[in-house]
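User: Can you recover a sequence for this backbone? Please restate the input before giving your answer.

Assistant: Of course. Working from this structure:
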């Protein structure tokens, strides 16, 4: 008896489209994707593809809603050779806490790279963005922070202040955590939660300079529009991951901090010249042409084309603005696992 031959590629694509759109809830997505080695590796791979020219990344669409202290960002990226990609819509409204709501939300749409039809809607409420952003911080620390870092400082007490530190602990286990925040009640809550979760001492800093002085690694996680860290506070061996400046108006590091650093790294060179910490340094004409040439992308380091930390005494900085390749990587991971596990609701298209 002859075995049945699979249908033609056209028929298989048509069959996939006819199954409709998979809709996944946040709880189902959380069952598929966690902040773990798989997520970190998926994001690292995406950075490598970006730096090797295997990604089509359109400019970020940023929609300001100043009347409600909000913004909505649209990010995407197609990675060469993959059969799907993601479009992410993410919002941040700083006044939501007064309404009893999270400050951030969002969703992702997985699109077929063969037909352009939507394959899935991931109603993650920003969860996947939190995971992929934290994973990027872990990749940065893996290649740029000293292996024997003992004390970590985090500026900010929001969701990313939690996610970044959880991810960091996976690649650079540390002994102490120091936190600085402007809201005493939220700082106390953060200390209580993270002390219980991380099983390490968690202390508070009364000012940013004190936090930097005590830390081997510093992670900035704020929406600040005024620089928080000054160059006079830097010390040999320090690593800083700055991930809060994702629009041109935000800034967490004084420009002279980047001037003094020994090693500057970013997630996307083209994007960081338009927003983020590097954007401010370039706008101020603070970096020489030679220094600009030395700036490495994280993906170049992942691929081994550029070096990460070179000595124990180097001061290293990674400027993370959030790139669409991260969204495609994490959305595909969630979608593939959901399909494997039979999760979600199929909606006719």
């Amino acid at each position: 008896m002859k075995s049945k031959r699979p249908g033609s590629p056209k028929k298989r694509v048509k069959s996939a489209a006819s199954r409709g759109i998979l809709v996944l809830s946040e709880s189902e997505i959380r069952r598929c994707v966690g902040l773990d080695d798989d997520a970190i590796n998926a994001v690292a791979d995406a950075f490598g593809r970006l730096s090797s020219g295997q990604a089509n990344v359109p400019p970020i669409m940023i929609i300001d809603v100043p009347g409600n202290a909000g913004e909505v960002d649209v990010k995407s990226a197609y990675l060469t050779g993959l059969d799907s990609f993601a479009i992410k819509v993410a919002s941040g409204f700083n006044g939501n806490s007064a309404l009893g709501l999270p400050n951030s939300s969002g969703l992702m749409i997985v699109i077929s790279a063969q037909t352009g039809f939507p394959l899935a809607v991931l109603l993650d409420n920003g969860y996947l963005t939190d995971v992929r952003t934290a994973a990027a911080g872990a990749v940065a620390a893996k290649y740029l922070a000293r292996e024997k870092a003992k004390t970590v400082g985090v500026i900010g007490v929001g969701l990313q202040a939690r996610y970044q530190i959880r991810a960091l602990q996976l690649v650079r286990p540390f002994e102490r955590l120091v936190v600085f925040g402007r809201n005493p009640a939220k700082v106390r809550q953060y200390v209580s939660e993270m002390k219980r979760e991380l099983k390490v001492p968690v202390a508070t800093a009364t000012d940013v300079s004190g936090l930097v002085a005590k830390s081997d690694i510093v992670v900035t996680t704020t929406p600040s529009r005024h620089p928080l860290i000054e160059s006079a506070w830097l010390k040999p061996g320090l690593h800083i991951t700055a991930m809060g400046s994702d629009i041109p108006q935000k800034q967490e590091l004084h420009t002279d901090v980047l001037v003094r650093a020994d090693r500057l790294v970013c997630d996307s060179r083209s994007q960081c010249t338009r927003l983020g910490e590097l954007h401010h340094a370039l706008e101020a004409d603070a970096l020489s042409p030679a220094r600009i040439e030395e700036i490495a992308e994280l993906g170049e380091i992942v691929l081994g084309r550029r070096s990460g930390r070179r000595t124990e005494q180097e001061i290293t900085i990674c400027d993370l603005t959030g790139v669409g390749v991260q969204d495609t990587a994490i959305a595909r991971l969630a979608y593939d696992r959901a399909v494997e596990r039979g999760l979600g609701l199929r909606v006719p298209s």
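That completes the design. Residues 12-128+326-347 form a domain with the ornithine cyclodeaminase, domain 1 fold (CATH 3.30.1780.10).
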